[in-house]
Amino acid sequence: MNFISDNAYGAAPQILAALAQANAGTDASYGEDAITARVTARMCDIFEREVAVFPVITGTAANALSLATVSPPYGAIFCHAQSHIALDECAAPEFFSGGAKLVGLKGGGAKITAAAVETALVEYRGGVHSPKPSAISITQATERGTVYRPDEIARLSELARREGMALHMDGARFANALVHLGCTPAEITWKAGVDVLSFGATKNGALCAEAVVFFTPALSGDFEYRRKRAGHLMSKMRFISAQLDAYLAEDRWLRQARRANVLAQRMADGLRQIAHAKLAETVQANAVFVHLPDALVARLRQAGAQFYEWGAPKDGRTLVRLVLSFLTPEEDVSRFLKLARA
């Protein structure tokens, strides 16, 4: 019963098959291959406009390099204090940008609001004495499994435009957010004002494949040089692109995310029926945050359940995170709930 992360599970079999197929014969290197071109065409189709697409192998690279492209070394990037770029990427955004400052903001459900950014901007009006406000970064779905609605993104975008900033979206679980909202990829990205997206695939079925998507190709600037300098321009890029190609084919990315979300809702529904269990967030993607008695946490672990504790225990209760994957066995969810009820 592994609920630690969707990273704990393997790749979709169709994606592994696509890698084997890409291994046959020869093709051009450094992203000049036919498969990479097909991925770009798929992305243009999916997002309903011409986009610039740059495959990379990690989400950290996607976030750090895209933010470095839209923010100068003296820039300020506004994000949630609990965001992945703030806490889990070893200062990679600061490193690859040459020193841009991450400004962590508070907000319920790990979401930031336009009002919170506007309040923070007051401290960054010092001209050359202050870091220059350059970008806003939001996570979709967030570190607490919540999802930004299109109108919330649009308000952040409106503020970003007014202040001359770019809007970046960390979409490590973009597919999970999308199927929850039931809208089109365009409606929660460029139509809502997003400039650049870190498009995640690894957590939802790829082996190691992410993509940076610029919705106005001209905004990609020197990204190609940054990617090469950072060691993410793969010589055999077709093996990264093959994963993305199979991921996007036949709406596989959406079907896989939908199954993970359904399992998360099933887990949440079951936990609501258990005395002394209290959900900490509305479940909107594939993560469940729940307060459980410490004794129950210990009993679940003893029975083989694996999950993260989200902070230190308090008043005899622990906040735990349960992440569901498209490969999570249904019987694992049933067994976990049965143990919790016992």
Structure description:
- This protein is α/β, with parallel strands linked by helices and 342 residues long.
- The chain has 2 domains: 12-251, Type I PLP-dependent aspartate aminotransferase-like (Major domain) (Aspartate Aminotransferase, domain 2, 3-Layer(aba) Sandwich); 253-341, Aspartate Aminotransferase, domain 1, CATH 3.90.1150.10.
- The protein is built from 13 helices and 11 strands.
- It has a 7-stranded mixed sheet, with helices on both faces. It has a 4-stranded antiparallel sheet with strand order 8-9-11-10.
- It is globular.
Task: Give a brief description.
The protein is of the alpha/beta class and 342 residues long. The strands form two sheets. A seven-stranded mixed β-sheet has the order 1-7-6-5-4-2-3, sandwiched between helices. A four-stranded antiparallel β-sheet has the order 8-9-11-10.
Mind telling me the CATH class of the largest domain?
Alpha Beta
User: Which superfamily, in CATH terms, is the homologous superfamily of the largest domain?
Assistant: Type I PLP-dependent aspartate aminotransferase-like (Major domain)
| Number of structurally distinct domains | 2
Briefly note the CATH topology name of the largest domain: Aspartate Aminotransferase, domain 2
Named at the architecture level, the CATH assignment of the largest domain is 3-Layer(aba) Sandwich
